[in-house]
Design goal:
The protein is mostly helical. The protein is built from eleven helices and no strands. Helix content is 70%, strand content 0%. Helix 3 packs parallel to helix 6. The N terminus and C terminus are likely disordered.
Length: 288
């Protein structure tokens, strides 16, 4: 009864896309590293050794083979902290997408499906959210409530739902009167069935594109908040916090800022490549 979410031809083109292949490889590798972090780190990422502060990476002059990426200003193994930083970035990105997705998709589907006053209320909520600068609100909340892992997830999740709502609303409005939805009504199914079995599966691919874009944005915002000291609290090895702690040593020990900065760049690029490949295959317009 339902329509097809993504035609087979588009799926085949997606799998052949270089951007999709590179993005999937980067994100997949990061996910594996995040899951296996406790078993693959060579040292405790929180262990301090003041006698081994700012040891260069093993491939640089003065480096130690025991520390592949060197050590930070407190003598902590940088490779181990980088691996645990992958876990923090991935978890925050995924949890933020889940939180914002639940809010935005629910509002968007209800507004697009029911129309009328329900849609007016949803449009008002979206407009209100778009008028609020997300970064400034996140900074204000973090400054008032203090830094914590769950606070970062909650704040980002409550601030990044608008794109989900916009896409869910517009796509729901496009398919609510199509033949397979009308056939479901004629079969006597409930509204819940229509929404969950007919509407949601057929807008899922559009929402997947939004999820990748929002995940990349959440990772960047978390890094920015942590860089400013208002995100993940120390000693957790957030990449943004690692960059913040390294800025005083960047001229004499540049690897302490290059390593987490490069990791952040590669991960965000990988997530964006996935989103761009999906968007190109579907011809999806996600402009606000």
């Amino acid at each position: 009864m339902s329509g097809v979410a993504m035609p087979a031809g588009r799926g085949a083109r997606l799998l052949r896309s270089p951007g999709f292949a590179v993005g999937a490889a980067i994100v997949g590798f990061a996910a594996i590293v995040a899951l296996l972090a406790p078993w693959i780190v060579p040292y405790d990422p929180f262990a301090i050794d003041l006698d081994r502060r700012l040891v260069p990476p093993s491939f640089m002059e003065g480096g130690d083979p025991r520390n592949f990426l060197g050590t930070d200003q407190l003598g902590r193994d940088y490779f181990s902290r980088l691996i645990y930083g992958t876990r923090i970035s991935m978890v925050i990105g995924v949890l933020t997408v889940i939180t914002s997705g639940l809010i935005g998709i629910t509002l968007g589907i209800l507004g697009g499906f029911y129309g009328g006053k329900v849609d007016d209320a949803v449009v008002f909520a979206i407009t209100t959210r778009l008028s609020i600068p997300a970064v400034l609100v996140a900074l204000a909340v973090a400054a008032l409530r203090g830094s914590s892992f769950m606070l970062v997830v909650l704040v980002l999740g409550l601030l990044l739902w608008d794109r989900f709502a916009v896409v869910a609303r517009s796509t729901t409005m496009q398919i609510r009167n199509l033949d397979y939805v009308a056939a479901a009504w004629c079969a006597g199914v409930s509204r819940w069935w229509v929404l969950t079995r007919e509407v949601l599966p057929n807008i899922a691919t559009h929402l997947a594109v939004v999820a990748t874009l929002e995940m990349a944005l959440a990772i960047l915002l978390e890094a920015a908040l942590s860089f400013l000291g208002l995100g993940v609290p120390p000693p957790l090895p957030s990449w943004g916090l690692m960059i913040s702690e390294a800025k005083e040593y960047m001229f004499f020990s540049p690897w302490v800022i290059i390593v987490p900065g490069a990791a952040l760049f590669v991960l965000v690029m990988g997530v964006n490549l996935l989103g761009d490949a999906l968007r190109d295959m579907m011809g999806t317009d996600l402009s606000r």
